[in-house]
């Protein structure tokens, strides 16, 4: 087995696993709500929540933004190239152990640097994958999903599968081919397609139909190759409205579902819903989750939140209890996430540059979703919303309403009914009362 570089643990003075101490604890390095072994609705919290650490924000991010260089103080900052990749890998599995998370996720370029050729790049990947596989064999941590970074390198300036250059399309295909092989080798439970630069900045130079057709062709190729090599993990596609292009092709859940159905891809894909992407699209997190759920396409979640005062993807750790509660409500109604999970596609703030901040951030996010799980379970058990909704739509359970729901009504029968019943009496939607009830449940739990 590979021997870990001890820089990370030494920095944290040999810290042991983060443990659950309950809501009265004042220990910043303890869980207040997340008790992995607590059983709720017949499943442990660990099995409900399926937490995952995102390699890119946690191990590779350095705090750089458009106005300044990196600020993150990391013990591996003095390394470079493959040495840096190896030390980060050592630190990653030490962090996974401290947080006691069951999963992690990565982009291919997070874990190993690009070489001067595709061959050399794949060689770099193979070296790290061998070490990663050894770590995984001696730990409880599994790969939730991996994906391909097809947005950082300048070759992808016009996109990958939607590039105007056939050579770029070919390179992207080779990169995803390696990614699917990686998923199979490491036992990834899912493989994610994130659009990256799959979109456009102006229609003045864009063949929109060609690009959508090419993206669908690319995804069908991926499906075919997965079948060819026997990879059975779930394919996921992650909606995002903008950034880095002005208009991403997978703008939101509705657009993505329409695309999948239009091109016959919906039997093979589910959606990976990200909270911050939902709000950038002008939706709530729970809206995107519910839309995916009612179409049977909710697969996994990127757990973060945005800053409503800022217009870009801030990827903050999730601490909004209303958002986590309503998200878990949708996930529980979905029967869970199957092979998916709650992946912390989130980063500490640029000013939170010390190593310990990574732990504080993950603890905050895990506690927020644990609290949301408890509240959502009680809301469902008590049928707080279900009974209200059932009552609100009761007119469709009998008479003319039932005819409408069952497809038996016509414009003729509806006109006849309307002429005989000229008086319409609507009822209040009780929105404020319901919000007060939600407050009550969150505060009481």
In words, what does this structure look like?
With 445 residues, this protein is an alpha/beta fold. The protein is built from 17 helices and twelve strands. It has helices at residues 7-11, 45-49, 55-60, 81-99, 108-111, 118-137, 166-186, 208-229, 253-262, 275-280, 285-294, 321-333, 356-381, 386-392, 399-405, 411-420, 431-444; strands at residues 39-40, 43-44, 51-54, 103-107, 142-147, 190-194, 199-200, 234-238, 247-248, 269-274, 298-302, 342-344. Strands 3-4-5-6-8-10-11-12 form an eight-stranded parallel beta barrel, surrounded by four helices. Strands 1-2 form a two-stranded antiparallel ribbon. A two-stranded antiparallel ribbon has the order 7-9. Helix 6 (118-137) packs parallel to helix 7 and helix 11 (285-294) packs parallel to helix 12 (321-333). The longest helix is centred in the last third of the chain and has 26 residues, at 356-381. The chain is globular and about 80 Å long. The protein starts with 6 loop residues before the first helix and ends with a helix. The mean pLDDT is 96.
């Amino acid at each position: 087995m590979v021997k870990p570089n001890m820089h990370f643990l030494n920095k944290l003075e040999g810290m042991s696993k983060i443990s659950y101490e309950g809501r009265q604890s004042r220990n910043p390095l303890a869980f207040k709500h997340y008790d992995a072994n607590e059983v709720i609705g017949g499943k442990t919290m660990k099995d409900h929540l399926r937490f995952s650490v995102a390699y890119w924000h946690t191990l590779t991010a350095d705090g750089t933004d458009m106005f300044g260089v990196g600020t993150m103080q990391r013990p591996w900052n003095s390394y470079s190239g493959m040495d840096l990749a190896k030390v980060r890998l050592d630190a990653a599995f030490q962090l996974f152990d401290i947080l006691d998370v069951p999963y992690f996720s990565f982009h291919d370029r997070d874990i190993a640097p690009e070489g001067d050729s595709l061959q050399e790049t794949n060689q770099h990947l193979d070296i790290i994958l061998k070490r990663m596989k050894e770590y995984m064999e001696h730990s409880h941590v599994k790969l939730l999903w991996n994906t391909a970074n097809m947005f950082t390198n300048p070759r992808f300036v016009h996109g990958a599968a939607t590039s105007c250059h056939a050579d770029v399309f070919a390179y992207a295909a080779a990169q995803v081919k390696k990614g699917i092989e990686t998923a199979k080798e490491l036992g990834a439970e899912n493989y994610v397609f994130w659009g990256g630069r799959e979109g456009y900045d102006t229609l003045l130079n864009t063949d929109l139909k060609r690009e959508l057709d090419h993206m669908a062709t690319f995804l069908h190729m991926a499906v075919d190759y997965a079948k060819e090599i026997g990879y059975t993990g779930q394919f996921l596609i992650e909606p995002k409205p903008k950034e880095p292009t002005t208009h991403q092709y997978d703008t939101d859940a509705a657009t993505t579902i329409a695309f999948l159905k239009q091109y016959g891809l919906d039997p093979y894909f589910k959606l990976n819903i990200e909270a911050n992407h939902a709000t950038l699209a002008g939706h709530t997190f729970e809206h995107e989750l519910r839309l995916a759920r009612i179409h049977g396409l909710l697969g996994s979640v990127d757990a973060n939140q945005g800053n409503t005062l800022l217009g870009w993807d801030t990827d903050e750790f999730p601490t909004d209890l209303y958002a986590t509660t309503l998200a878990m409500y949708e996930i529980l109604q979905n029967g869970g996430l199957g092979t998916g999970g709650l992946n912390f596609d989130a980063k500490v703030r640029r000013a939170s540059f010390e190593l310990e901040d990574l732990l504080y951030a993950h603890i905050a996010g895990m506690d927020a979703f644990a609290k949301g799980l408890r509240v959502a379970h009680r809301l469902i058990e008590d049928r707080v919303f279900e009974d209200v909704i059932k009552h609100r739509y009761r007119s469709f359970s009998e008479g003319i309403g039932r005819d409408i729901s069952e497809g038996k009504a016509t414009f003729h029968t509806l006109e006849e009914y309307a002429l005989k019943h000229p008086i319409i009496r609507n009822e209040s939607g009780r929105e404020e009362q319901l919000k007060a009830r939600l407050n009550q449940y969150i505060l009481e739990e």
